[in-house]
Structure formats: C-alpha cells, structure tokens
Amino acid sequence: MTDLPGQDADKAPERAPDVVRSRFDQGVVKVAQLAAWLVFIAMAISVYEVIMRYGFSSPTSWVHETVVMLVAVSFCLGGPAALASNRHIRVKVLYDAVGPTFRRALDIFNDVVTFGFCLGMSYAAWVMFYGASHNPLGEWQLERSGTSWNPPFPAVVKGMILLALAVMCVQALIHVFQSLKGKPVPGAPEGGAD
After folding, report:
1. Distances in Å between the alpha carbon of 92 and those of 50, 79, 110?
2. Is 140 helix (H, G, I), strand (E, B) or coil?
3. What is the per-residue pLDDT for 99?
4. 3-state secondary structure of 32
5. How far is CA 44 from its chain centroid?
C-alpha cells in the first residue's frame, strides 16, 4: 500500500469535506445533518419496543409506524443532501475525459435535466400529497394509517416527499444559473484528457 505524500503510515486518511455549490446547499446540508438523528431516534424507540415486548410482555401499538415514518422522512431528505454536497451518482467517464469547455456544456445539460426531472416529480408529489391531505369533497383531512393507533403518518411522509422535491427544484435551478455563469462544479477535475 502506498502512502500519500505528507501522510503518516499509521493514520487513516481523513475524509474530504463535502463540497457545496451555494449557500442554499449549505443550509440543506445542515438540515440534513440534523435530520440524520431521526434514524437514531427510530433505533432508540425500536429498542424500547423490544424491551417492552419481551421484557415486560407489554407491546406497544405506536412504535412500528413511528419508526417507519422517521426513517421515511430521513430518507426523503437524503436526495437534497446528496444534491447539495455533490455526492449523487454520476457517470464520469466522459466528463473526466473532456476539456473545460465541453465539461461546462455537460454541467449545464446535467443541471437542466435535473431541474426538469425534479419539477416533474414535484408535480407528481403534489398530486399525491393533495390526495393524502384532502377528502373527496376537497376539504382538509389527512390520510391516516388505518391501524388501531391510526396516526396521519402517510400524509406526513407524502408531505415530506413533496417538500424534499421542492427543495431539489430550487437547488437544481440555482445550479443551472451557476453553470450558465461558468461556475465549475466543486470537485470536478481541473484539466481534460491529455
């Protein structure tokens, strides 16, 4: 194994910091870091359920649905966080092989397609959330789970999906403007192919 210059053999390499493209993205990353604690809360109440069920023969009726809702909300916020920190999946074979001019064109194309996709998905999420938050007469009534506890978690999760996609629309639009101005994507290679 080769060591990087300036790196001690016994120390593990530090992870590079997330790179963000805008202040809006910085805010999204901070919110996502807070939302990551939802998974810890879900784990803690799952442990509580196990103790209550098997230690005291007193199972709960609320833990399973709450855990599913917390993890779903955390998962919803993963998309904006990945887009904000430039850690989404991309095929970089062509991107790394071209020069800065073509790379800028690819950035613009990618950002426009991302915006269009997020806009279309936001519309679909709005239709889904409206159906979960209004009854057939058009009055406000949250969709419920239908269990004995019957919380409005299905409507909450669908609302979070809509919120996450709306945030991604704003992010993608900001990224389009940045690409049009020629601001490079953070973490992109500086030169093209030799």
Report:
1. 45, 19, 12
2. strand
3. 86
4. helix
5. 22
C-alpha distances out from residue 62 to 59, 72, 147, 156, Å:
9, 16, 10, 15
Question: Quick check: 76 and 157 in contact, CB under 8 A?
Answer: yes
Question: How does pLDDT run across 184-194, given as a tens digit for each residue?
Answer: 666 554 443 43
Contact 24, 170 (CB under 8 A): yes
Residue 55 is inside which H or E element, if any? none
User: Which DSSP state fits 134?
Assistant: B
Torsion sign over Cα 170, 176, 180, 183: positive
Cα(88)–Cα(80) distance, integer angstroms: 10
Task: Let me know: does 23 contact 17? Beta carbons within 8 Å.
Answer: no
Q: Comparing C-alpha atoms, which of 107, 126, 113 is closest to residue 165?
A: 126
- The answer to whether the beta carbons of residues 120 and 169 sit under 8 Å apart is no
CA distance 45 to 43: 6
Global pTM reads 0.80
Cβ atoms within 10 A of the Cβ of 3, count? 10
